[in-house]
Amino acid sequence: MERTPRSSPQSKGASVAACTRIVALSLSTVVLVTGCSASTGDPASGIDARSDDAATAATGYPVSLENCGRTVVLESPPQRAISINQPATELLLTLGLSDQMVGSASWSDPVQPQLAAANAEVPVLSNDFPSFERVLAEKPDFVYATFDWSFTDEGVAPRELFERFGVPTYQSSSECGGQDALQDRSLTLDDLYAEIDDLATIFGVPERGDALVASLRARSAEASDGLDAEGVTLMWWYSATRTPYIAGCCGAPGIITDAVGATNVFADNRQLWPEISWESILDRDPDVLILADLTRGDDGDSADAKIRFLESDPVAQRLTAVRERRWIVLPGSAMDPSLRNVDAVEELATGLRSLKVAG
């Protein structure tokens, strides 16, 4: 959400064999496909690693996609990709593409544990924004970023500059309008699934994309099955204390809220992350507070800092949710459009049941 990347060390695990690819994940399991042996992967995943890679690498190029008002053309699958922003990196790792990446940058949280081994294979160019020169030094053939700010002079560089050097780029469609603009529609999980499909197409691994989307759809449906959260109001607090950044209508918190059938108490605000006064929050008195746990160290970033503020501020402590300690903590990265949104659907559904505010 923030323009300035949230900086944190990423977990690094032991390296895995170069032939192992992560193609689907859940909170409890990771489906692995071993693409260099006779194995065709886990039958339940619906993925045949041999037909996926061999067939699509030979056909289907050039690939041309429309992305945020630009036409992106790739003559062949990227072999030297760079990902900017954690959601982009984790998506590529989940699709099993670590051996086609030469760098990642702009981290907000530790990498998901099930991706740590694959992540260890990819050099970290910077925990923040790397310079344009640092990125070009890796001779990338594709650059993929989540946030619009990444493709600006204040971030890494505008997309036009990459194009001038012959480097195709892709930006998450969730950020096409920019973080500061009034949003004209709410994001849904289908936007995430479409992005997965785009990246799987770009890299020539459509079957992996299909399997991942099927897994995510099933998990989201299972998490919300039988959950009655109608009429339950939520407030999503990202950062800052004096005038906090609270989720408006249309970003990832809206995706997650809709998936569990609850209501975002500030869904009438068309900004992604408006600054809202505590007096205005008290006027709406949400049933449950969703607290982002960030590792940057800025004002009100950590969940602990948020809770200390809630319990000491003369206005915030009057909230019903504070008096009854009804809050749910989620990683800050779960509040950005990403694969982690489905994790958040699962965690939110569990939390609402635990708080006994939803059946």
From TrEMBL:
InterPro entries, per the entry = ABC_Transporter_SBP, ABC_transptr_periplasmic_BD
Q: Which Pfam families match?
A: Peripla_BP_2
Q: Where is the signal peptide?
A: none
According to the entry, every stretch annotated as the Fe/B12 periplasmic-binding domain falls at 80-356
Taxonomy, superkingdom = Bacteria
Give the similarity note. Answer: Belongs to the bacterial solute-binding protein 8 family.
Q: What is this protein called?
A: Vitamin B12-binding protein
Question: Source species, please?
Answer: Mycolicibacterium vanbaalenii
